[in-house]
Amino acid sequence: MSTPTIGSLELAALLAVARLGEEAYGLAIRRDLAARLGRDHSVGAIYTTLQRLEDKGLLTSHASAPLPVRGGRSRRHFTLTGAGTRALRAAQRQAVSMWAGVGLLGPEPA
């Protein structure tokens, strides 16, 4: 079985889910991505991406119990599947392969 193709936002979302573990729910994933990518994606973009990853079999999700506050809502928590873990490993191998033989491109601008 081949590894599904994933885009850059999908890869970033998979990495966020892996990083956040038990705390991988929509808003936490969005905050993690904003902090690491320096860009604030819309809620819709994040949930569309997470749904697409779930459709590809790279994530699963479940709803939590409602938060213990008045009007508390449940959260949709995400977990990597085995295929999701394999996709991350494949992306890592591909990135290492792409960078092989490339020296530093010079000093970073200040």
From TrEMBL:
Pfam name, any one: PadR
Superkingdom of origin: Bacteria
Transcription regulator PadR N-terminal domain sequence ranges: 14-89
Cited PANTHER family: PADR-FAMILY TRANSCRIPTIONAL REGULATOR (PTHR33169), TRANSCRIPTIONAL REGULATOR RV3488 (PTHR33169:SF14)
Protein name: Transcription regulator PadR N-terminal domain-containing protein
Source lineage: Bacteria, Pseudomonadati, Gemmatimonadota, Gemmatimonadia, Gemmatimonadales
